[in-house]
Design brief:
The protein has twelve helices and eleven strands.
């Protein structure tokens, strides 16, 4: 998720209040989920016993790691929610950007950190799940080395194009891209965009070539000049650029329209069956983090999502608020690993590295 815009949390005023959406997960537990829970539970119980004899949490500064550059879409969400929880946390909070390998550097850093609640990863668990299948040799097994302790938002990646293009919908764009054949190009910056672009190729019979960029803003000039035909970009960037008149949003890569983005049709609605990328944002800790610490972190973020400032901010970028207790947040993470495995296989993306 990428953008270079600067945002001031809490300033936006929505037209109407947005309710907190809690989405219980009702799918049966998969074999992967059962095995992961079985491995995590003994470590969690042991660490909880140790926690009872340890110092109160938190007793020193907390480091929250972001896997993408300052000013990117992910960084915007990380820093916004950090500002919302600061009044609730009795110790300093430091945000660190550890950039590289599509978020894998940050993921590995936190997975190998001490499981004490002082090093956390604020990231999309769905992107972490994607990287497990988009890279040949992931440095860590995130499904067993990390635990998702909280969720904040459900989001979409969007199919976007230069605002001067005549396309009104997905069918217009597909007709153009088919005529252009293998000379057509699209921009991506993160795993959800990569998945959507390749799924579109497979499902709609396109031959477009992916061009990867470090941030979506880096691709903006190439989109405007016509060197790129379209892009798959995060909600922060897509909505900001659409409001500025530079891009048009053609469709959302989700299963059904988001409550805060009701006017944007999904790609599935427009004839692209199964073209979606699961997307939610959360906070992850190293496996073995004591349960009381996990519950405290979850409480902070649940309270943060409920603030009026968060309601306005989330709505501004088309996302939906999403809160869950720790056990359901973790189940969402484990389930999305299985879901991403199936979607990556369908997209025929060649793993990198």
């Amino acid at each position: 998720m990428s953008t270079n815009i600067k945002l001031t949390p809490g300033k936006e005023q929505p037209n109407a209040p947005c309710p907190i959406v809690t989405r219980p997960i009702t799918r049966p537990m998969t074999r992967r989920s059962a095995l992961a829970f079985a491995g995590i539970l003994p470590a969690a119980l042991a660490s909880s016993r140790l926690y009872a004899q340890a110092e109160p949490y938190p007793s020193r500064e907390i480091h929250i790691i972001c896997g993408f550059p300052p000013g990117s879409g992910a960084d915007v969400w990380v820093r916004f929610f950090v500002e919302q929880i600061r009044p609730l946390v009795p110790q300093p909070i430091v945000v660190e950007n550890k950039v590289g390998a599509n978020g894998n550097i940050a993921t590995e850093y936190v997975a190998r950190a001490r499981p004490d609640g002082y090093t956390l990863l604020s990231h999309s668990p769905t992107a972490i799940a994607a990287n497990m299948f988009m890279f040949k040799n992931p440095s860590v097994d995130a499904g067993t080395k990390l635990v998702n302790v909280a969720t904040m938002i459900e989001f979409a990646f969007y199919l976007t194009a230069d605002s001067k293009r005549p396309w009104r919908n997905l069918q217009d764009l597909v007709a153009y891209v088919k005529d252009k054949g293998d000379k057509a190009t699209f921009a991506t910056t993160a795993a959800p965009g990569r998945l959507l672009g390749h799924l579109l190729n497979q499902v709609m019979g396109l031959k477009a070539t992916e061009v990867q960029y470090r941030t979506a803003a880096d691709a903006l000039n190439d989109i405007a000049s016509g060197q790129l035909d379209y892009a798959l970009t995060d909600g922060v960037f897509s909505h900001a650029q659409a409001r500025a008149g530079r891009l048009k949003i053609i469709g959302a890569g989700v299963k059904k329209r988001l409550a805060n983005d009701p006017d944007v049709p999904t790609l599935i609605e427009q004839g692209a069956a199964n073209v979606y990328a699961p997307g939610f944002f959360g906070v992850l800790a190293p496996s073995g983090t004591p349960q009381p610490v996990i519950e405290q972190i979850n409480t902070w973020y649940v309270q943060a999502v409920a603030t009026p400032a968060a309601t306005a901010f989330i709505k501004r970028f088309g996302a939906d608020p999403l809160t869950n207790p720790p056990d359901m947040a973790q189940k969402m993470f484990l389930d999305t690993i299985d879901e991403w495995g199936k979607l990556v296989k369908l997209s025929k993306i060649e793993p990198q590295g």
